[in-house]
Amino acid sequence: MSHRVLVVEDNPDIAYLLELHLRDLPCEVDVARDGLAALDAARARPYDAIVLDIMLPRLDGLAVCRAIRQERIFTPILMLTARTTELDRVLGLELGADDYLAKPFSVPELLARVKAFFRRAEAYSPRDAAPRGAVLTLDELAIDVDRRAVTLAGASVTLTAKESTCCCASRNIPGACIHGHSSSIWCGGTRTRATGTPSTHTSTGCGQRSSAMRASRDSC
């Protein structure tokens, strides 16, 4: 299956290099050269991954990431940044990015990180995956497959990207328990807990589950 990737990069040489290598995976690639074009593209069609530079004209990558998550679009985001301070990296992750890579970066490493996004998504997809644009429903639970948006009784459920993956996984395998230590869902040493406010993180082993995820599992 060919994946669809949005590359958001204002440097034409870097954008071309990424497009060239991603097409070899193979992937269908769209390129946006500024933040507003990136938002328009993310709203217009579903993607399997977004490679997002932070330093962009018109709207920077952090603002783009925040806006994407606020609009309930949970496509995995890999941020590219020339900023090397811990604060910049943490801020991007807190705003909803799934991973980051510092410039200058290794192309093979970037491709490996993008392919890791694909593997995690495919690991929790049913063999007869729902077609693009499908909305899965069960009683009052609805999951928009492409946008990875979840509603319960008509109300939007606030989920992080990883919690959205959990919800889609539980919908695909009803009755199963999605273990908190699953490396296919939790990355690195942190978990994300939805609180209705900007996400907070707890260290591995705390066993926290968000109320939103409990509601989703109960409906399943």
Outline of this structure?
This protein is α/β, with parallel strands linked by helices. It has helices at about 10-25, 35-45, 60-70, 85-95, 105-125, 160-170, 210-220, and strands spanning about 5-10, 25-30, 50-55, 75-80, 100, 135-140, 140-145, 150, 155, 190-195, 200-205.
- Based on secondary structure, the structural category is alpha/beta
**Euclidean distance between termini CA atoms:** 28 Å
What low-confidence regions span 5 or more consecutive residues with pLDDT below 50? 181-220
- Listing every helix as H and every strand as E from the N terminus to the C terminus, the arrangement reads EHEHEHEHEHEEEEHEEH
Describe this structure in words.
The protein has 220 residues and is of the alpha/beta class. It is 36% helix and 22% strand. The protein contains 7 helices and 11 strands.
Set out the fold topology.
Blueprint: E1 3-8, H1 12-23, E2 27-32, H2 35-44, E3 49-53, H3 61-70, E4 77-81, H4 86-94, E5 99-102, H5 107-123, E6 135-138, E7 141-144, E8 149-152, E9 155-156, H6 161-172, E10 190-193, E11 200-203, H7 211-219
Parallel strand pairs: 1-2, 1-3, 3-4, 4-5
Antiparallel strand pairs: 6-7, 7-8, 8-9, 10-11
Helix pairs in contact: 2-3
